[in-house]
Write a structure and sequence with these properties.
GlyoxalaseI/FosfomycinResist (chains A, B, C, D), 5 helices, homotetramer, metal-binding (chains A, B, C, D), 35% strand, ten-stranded mixed beta sheet, ferrous iron binding (chains A, B, C, D), 2,3-Dihydroxybiphenyl 1,2-Dioxygenase, domain 1, globular, alpha+beta, 324 residues, eight-stranded mixed beta sheet, 2 domains
Chain lengths: 324, 324, 324, 324
C-alpha cells in the first residue's frame, strides 16, 4: 500500500457542451460561487470552500468526466503516489503548477477501472463565504462530498482503493442468494460515509458528484428554487433518504445530463473498530429507506470518462460476470 | 343557496377490515391520539384537536369511505341544511346525539355525486395536546385539513358545492385544447386552499384525507419513522411540492389501502377579491411543482363509498364525457 | 354589536424617519416586495399577497404608528361600521378611493384606547409570488399576521373588540393572586390565534407587527441573513417558542425601532366551542415556553400612535389600576 | 510531539449527585440510549454510536468532571502517550481493561492545566441506532462532538495541545487593543471545528460537553420536548448561531448544573492549508452571530474537575494575567 496521505475528494472536472448554460445551472441554480473563468473553463467553489475550486466546467464537444481529484496532505505524498503508479504500471502524467488553474503541481492517472484521477496538494486560497449568508443562494452548496463511479469489475476496484490507496469501507452491498458477490462499496478517506462510491455496472462511467448541503430543509428549498427558474425537469429523483449512508438526497441533472446529488446527513466513520454496514441488493430499503425506487434514467444513464493523456473517451464495457 | 354556516371539514370515518392493524398504523405510525374506542370503532384526534375525533376507524367487511363530516357554526344550521336537502330531493337521515360517539345530533346525506356527507355542530371536548410535546410521535398530525373526492361529473359537483353549499374556489384545473373543460377544483370554507378537492374521474371514489403537519421537516421525519417501523412500502408517493395548492406533501397508505396525505404549507384564501388560480392539466408543474409524476397506483386507485342508509357501496361509474 | 364582517388584519402603516434606511431593512433584510413608492411612502407586500400592500412606510419627523387596517368582506360593511362609530361617539373620517394608494374608500377611526384603525374592502390586485421562489429572499415574509397593542385599560379594550367588533378570543393572560385581573388577550377574526393582541401597559403604544413565515427553519435563516448584512444588533429577542399562541418567533427592530415579529406555527381557532386558553402572568412558560425572559427593551419600549385627524401623537398614560 | 494518533474526543464522564434524576434528564430529556448501568454508573450513547458509551454518569457527593476521554487509532498509541507523559512529568495512571466498563486498557492523566484526560483504543461494540428512527426521542443526540474547558493559562494549554498532542486550530479569539493576547482556541483532531475548546478563565473548570444534533430544526424540537417535560428552566441559553464555529446551538443544564450544548452545523477543517479564523473578543457577532449575549450564568458558572488519582477536586485559580 502507498502510505500517501490522501485527505479527501477535493474537486471534479466535467466536460460540458455549452459553458453559459452550465454556468447558469451551477451558479444561478445550485448557488455555487464562480471564483474565476477563462475561455474554456469555469472554476466554481462551495460556500465553505477556502480554495479556488471544487468543480470545474470545461468546454468540450460532448459531455464526459474530465477527471476527479483528491487532495493529499503534503507535496511529498505525490511522489509516493508516482512510485505506486509506476509499480502498478498505470498510465499517469504530471501537471505543472498552474496547468490546472489555481492548483499546484499534480499527478493525474488512469485508475485500474479506467477513471481519470488526479492528486494534488496545493491550491490557491479563496475566501470562504460561510457567514456571508446574503450570498447563499439556490441550493446553497457548502462543499463537495463524494464521487460515484460505475465500475465493471468491482472486486478489482475495491481492492485497489482499499489495499493500495488506503481507503476504508463504511458500507457495502452484496448480491447473490447468499450475498456472495460484492455489488457496491462506499469508501472514504475523510471520516464520513464516503469520498468514493463504487457500483458494479457497465463502465467506466461516472454516475454523479455529491455536494454537501446543510440539512434536509435546505435541499427542499433547493428544489423549489430550481423548479421556479425552469429546472423542474432536471430534478431526476425526488428527495428521499438513502438506506445506504442514511443520507437525505435529491438528484438533479445539468443541461448536459451531468448528475449532481444534493446530500446531507451522514455520520462519523473513523473509529478504529468501525464495522462496515452490509446491505443486500434485494433489500427494499437499500436504495430509498422509504421504499420508492429510483427512476429508470437514474439507474441506467451515466457519463463516459476521458483518458488522461489522449482525451479520448474510454470504451464502456459490460460488467464482469458474477463470479462463482 | 343554503345560508348554513359551514365552518370546515371536521372529520372522516373510514371502514377498515382489521381494527388492530389500522390502530397500529394511525397511532404508532402517524402519531394520532386515541380518544376512545369501542368494539367496532376507534376514535382518533390530532395533536391540536380540542374535540373527540377527526378520524374514525370502523370495522367492516371491506374497506370503504363511511362518511366525511363538516362542522357547522350552530345547531340551527343543521335545520337549514335539511331544508335544502329536501328541496333538492337528496337522501338524508338524522342521527341522534351520541349515535356517532362523542357527537351531537347530526344530519347525514348523500351528495349529488354519491358521497356520504355528514353535518353536525356539537362534539365532546377532548384535551388539545398542542404543548404536550412529549406526546408528539410519529407523523405528529396536528389536525384534519381536507378530503379529496373523485367525481364523475365535476361540473355538477362544482355547482353543488359553490352554489348550494357556499364553498369558495381557491384553485382549479382545466383540460382541453383551450382549457374549456373543468378537470379539478379546490374548494374551501375555512380560509385555506381547501376543505374539499374534486377531481374528475370514475366515481364516486374517495381518494385521500389530508392531515395538517407543522412543516416540511416534520413530514420528512414522519417518513423516517414510518419506514423504520415497517411501513416503507406504504409510502406511496415521495415527498414533494404540489403545483396546485403549493403544499408540501407525502402520501401514505394504511394497511387497507386508505390514503393519507401529510400536508403543510398553504396560504390564506378568504380575501373578498381572491382570484382562483388556474392550472392546465398539461402543465408539467401542476401535480408536482418539481416535475415528477405521481405513481400509477396514486393515479388509479381510490376507495368506494358507502350509502348513508343501506350501507351498500355506491356503484362506480365512468366520468361523464367531456362536453362541448 | 356591529354585524360588519371583518375578514382580517390586512396592513399596517408606520411612520419612519428615513425612507431609504427603512426600505433597506424591509426589502433587503426582510425580503418584502416593493409594489410601488412615491415621494413619501413605500408600499410593500409579502410573498403570498395578492394585493397592493400589507405594510406602508411613511416619511415623518419621528417614528410612530400611522394606523393599522382591517379588511372587511364587502363595501357595505364600511357603512355599518360608520353607524357604530357614530353611536359610540368615536372620532372617524372617510378616505376617498386612492387617498391611500391602491386602496378603495376607507373609514379610519380612533378606537376607544386611542389606536388609529382603518377599515376598507377594495385594494388593487398585485401578483402573488408564492411560487416564484427565486424572488424569495431574506426573511421570506409571506403575509401579515397580527398587530400587538399596549392598552391602558384592557377591560374596556377587550369589551370593545369582543362585544362591538365581533372578535373572538383564543387565549388570554390573567394576573392577581387568583387570576382575577385580565392582563392580555389574543383576539381574532381570521381563524388563527390572533389578528390583534392587547396587553395591559402604558398606552396607547404599538408594540409590534407580526408577519407570517413558513416555518421555524426559515426564521433561523432570516436571522443568519439579517446578521450577515449588518442587522445583528436589530435582533432584539432571540428565537423561541411562545407559551401563549404556541408560535415560534424572533423579534427584530427596524432602524427607527419599529418592532417586527417573524412568526409561525399557530392553530385553527374557529370551532364554535373553542375554549380560550388561560395563562397566568406568573407562569414561567407563558412568555417563552422554553423558559427564557424577553430582554428589557422588549418589555419596555413601544411606539407612540398618531391621531387619525390631527396627526399628533396620542398622549401615553399609565395603565389603569388593577381593579378590585 | 507525540506521534500518537488521536482520533477524536470520544466520551465524557461526569459526577452527578442523583443518578435517577440524571438518568431522567439524559434519557427522557435528551434521548440518549442507556447501554448499561451498575450501582454507581450509567453508561449512555448517542444514536449514531457503535460503542458502549459517549457519556458516563457517576454517582458522587458533589457534581464535577470525572474525566474526558480521547480515542486513539491503535493500542500502541497509548504507550507512545505514556512516554510523553513521563517526559513531561505529568501525573498519570493505567486502567486495566474493564476498569471503566466496556473499555479496553486506558491511560488517564492530568493535563498541564489540571484537567483529567483519558486515552484508550478499544471499547465494546454496541448497536448503532441510526436508522431505528422509532427509538429517536427527545433531543435525538447523535454523538459527542466536543469538550469545552476553562483554563487559567491558555498560552500553555494551547501549546500543549498543538505542539505535544498534535491538535490543529480551526478558530481562535484574541483580546487586547491590537489582539495581542490569545483568549480562546478551537482545537481539533477529527476534521470538524473542534474536539476541544480552550477558554481563558478561572480554572481548571469544565464548561460544557457538545453533542451533535442533525440539524437546527431538531434542536428546536428538543427545546419543545425538554420544556414540555418540565426542563424549561434548564434551557440556559436560547438557540442561536455562534460566530465562532458557525454552529447552531442551544445550551441546557442537567439537574446538577452540568452543561450540555446541542450543536450542529460546522465545516470541514482538515485541508493542509486551512487558515484558522481569527476573532476579536470585542466582536459583537463572536459569541452569537445574531448579536445577543449569553446569560450571566453561562458566562460565569462551570464545573470543578477531579484529580485522576486522589479524586479530589482541583483547586480553581484565577487566570494568569494578560502578559505583555
Amino acid at each position: 500500500m502507498s502510505d500517501a496521505n490522501i485527505i479527501r475528494l477535493h474537486h471534479v472536472n466535467i466536460n460540458v457542451t455549452d459553458l453559459e448554460k452550465a454556468r447558469h445551472f451551477y451558479v444561478e441554480g445550485l448557488g455555487m460561487i464562480e471564483t474565476e473563468a477563462d475561455e474554456n473553463n469555469i472554476y466554481l467553489r462551495g460556500l465553505d470552500d477556502g480554495n479556488h475550486h471544487c468543480l470545474v466546467l470545461t468546454k468540450a464537444e460532448r459531455p464526459s468526466l474530465n477527471h476527479i481529484a483528491y487532495r493529499v496532505a503534503s507535496d511529498e505524498d505525490l511522489d509516493k503516489l508516482e512510485k505506486l503508479f509506476i509499480e502498478e504500471g498505470l498510465p499517469f502524467r504530471w501537471l505543472e503548477k498552474g496547468e490546472e488553474r489555481g492548483q499546484g503541481r499534480a499527478i493525474r492517472m488512469q485508475d485500474p477501472q479506467g477513471f481519470p484521477v488526479e492528486f494534488f496538494c496545493e491550491m490557491d486560497w479563496a475566501e470562504p463565504l460561510i457567514q456571508k449568508y446574503y450570498l447563499h443562494r439556490g441550493a446553497r452548496v457548502k462543499r463537495i462530498d463524494h464521487a460515484n463511479c460505475l465500475v465493471r469489475d468491482i472486486d478489482l476496484a475495491y481492492r485497489w482503493y482499499m489495499e493500495k490507496m488506503g481507503f476504508m469501507c463504511s458500507e457495502y452491498t452484496v448480491a447473490g442468494e447468499n450475498g456472495e458477490y460484492l455489488w457496491a462499496a462506499w469508501l472514504h478517506r475523510k471520516p464520513t460515509v464516503h469520498d468514493l462510491a463504487l457500483i458494479r455496472d457497465a463502465g467506466p462511467r461516472y454516475h454523479h458528484t455529491g455536494f454537501w448541503i446543510d440539512d434536509a430543509k435546505t435541499i427542499l428549498d433547493a428544489c423549489d428554487h430550481l423548479a421556479s427558474i425552469g429546472y423542474y425537469a432536471n430534478i431526476e429523483r425526488a428527495p428521499g433518504r438513502h438506506g445506504t449512508s442514511n443520507a437525505f438526497f435529491v438528484y438533479v441533472r445539468d443541461p448536459d445530463g451531468h448528475r449532481t446529488e444534493l446530500y446531507t446527513g451522514d455520520y462519523f466513520t473513523n473509529d478504529p473498530d468501525w464495522k462496515p454496514i452490509r446491505w443486500h441488493l434485494n433489500d427494499p430499503q437499500r436504495a430509498t429507506f422509504w421504499g420508492t425506487l429510483p427512476p429508470k434514467s437514474w439507474r441506467e444513464e451515466a457519463m463516459p470518462v476521458q483518458h488522461i493523456i489522449t482525451g479520448q473517451l474510454m470504451e464502456i464495457r459490460k460488467p464482469v460476470g458474477i463470479k462463482k
